[in-house]
Amino acid sequence: MGLLVEGKWVDQWYDTKSTGGRFVRTVTRFRDWVTADGAPGSSGGGGFRAEAGRYHLYVSYACPWAHRTLIVRALKKLEPVIPVSVVDPFMGSEGWVFADHATTPTEGATTDGVLGKQRLYEVYLAADPAYSGRVTVPVLWDRERETIVNNESAEIIRMLNDAFAAFTDDDHDYYPAPLREEIDALNARVYDAVNNGVYKAGFATTQEAYEEAVRALFAMLDELEARLEGRAWLMSEALTEADIRLFTTLIRFDPVYVGHFKCNIRQIREYPNLRRFVRALYALPGVAGTVNMPHIKRHYYQSHKTINPTGIVPVGPEVWWS
Ligand SMILES: N[C@@H](CCC(=O)N[C@@H](CS)C(=O)NCC(=O)O)C(=O)O
To answer: Which residues form the signal peptide (predicted)?
Structure first.
């Protein structure tokens, strides 16, 4: 685990000393947009026109942020249009690495299908040899301009939703204009309390920071449980990106966050509506294939040695989501 500093890899764990034991996630750096005609998107420059085979996704099956992109890619039937490379779930001293560089590769991990690199940080350096910052998944790579278009999952899923309409017969809109304000408002709260909330609880290094995060997390889960009463999805009958963004945290919750991150006031399977919601989203065509529990469990329990020094991966829980 580490980061790049002016193009050099430095092996270091998250610094929480300067933030009172609180884990603070840094802002992502590559912010260009793929659009249908190559016009600039809401941030960054233009020149990234949607084309089949031009863009490549680097993901980890373990990562909830990367998982968003895999789900939208599957639901939009973009698998043939945007190929994927999958890093090994174990994140050690060199950060994310590909299957050919992993000590004990986990089934489902792949090599780097574009550049043939062995470590994900080398992909970042190929885009910017002087890059400083965290080396995270997901990454959307442009084969033509040989650079990273974007490494922010919230933006990548919007590109997959609307830039590639010419390459898919799926016309479902996961970010429909009339609901955008409501989706954005809910996303912000779910991000803070739930998606990032589990990390704030798990990576906290003071009791106070942990309790603050865990209480806010469960207050929000209780609210979401109430919101889902009598409705299929967060925005009522329309499946939107807000559901996908919540799902990737909920599917990891009982197997990982309850134990590993100490988010243990309740489990998701004890919430009738959240449980139904997870099962319904999991059952959508293509989604089950994006959920790789061995990668998810192995990543967290084995990579975070400060939290789980033995690296033992729990056997349970029993599967309730399918
Ligand atoms: N804001 C980013 C966050 C991505 C992220 O933090 N990914 C994690 C994996 S779950 C990662 O690659 N972490 C490596 C690191 O922080 O060094 C996004 O949503 O795309």
So the answer is: none
